[in-house]
Amino acid sequence: MPKPETFDVETGWAVCQGPHGQLTSGPVASGTRHNVVIPMSCPPGYRPIGADHIHPPGYPNPSAQDIAEAQRLSLEFVCATSPDGKRVCVNTKR
């Protein structure tokens, strides 16, 4: 998981998969306390398969909006992580 500069606002990143299954993250984006637009960009040869983001208030559950956006982007999953490292991921495959 990338290390955000602050836990005061939502920060997020794409989870990217390489041709042999290796995982890495895309660039980290910062938003507001309640929203972040995550760029779905990955290093060359990788593709976005999911998204992860920090929820500053501390609850690690993806919102209905998070899940709907991941489904719209055809991502396999979306995760939300609390500042203390607790993470909840939801499978978004239809």
Mean pLDDT: 89
Low-pLDDT regions: none
Distance between the termini: 26 Å
Task: Describe the sheet with the most strands.
Answer: 6 strands, mixed
Explain how this protein is built.
With 94 residues, this protein is mainly β. It has one domain. The chain is built from one helix and six strands. Strands 1, 2, 3, 4, 5 and 6 form a six-stranded mixed β-sheet that branches. The longest helix is centred in the C-terminal third of the chain and has 9 residues, at 64-72. The relative contact order is 0.21.
At a glance:
By secondary structure, this protein is mostly beta strands.
What characteristics describe this protein?
94 residues, mainly beta, six-stranded mixed sheet, 1 helix, 6 strands, 32% strand
Fold blueprint:
Elements (H helix, E strand, L loop, with lengths): L10 E7 L5 E3 L3 E2 L16 E8 L9 H9 L4 E5 L5 E5 L3
Parallel strand pairs: 4-5
Antiparallel strand pairs: 1-2, 1-3, 1-4, 5-6
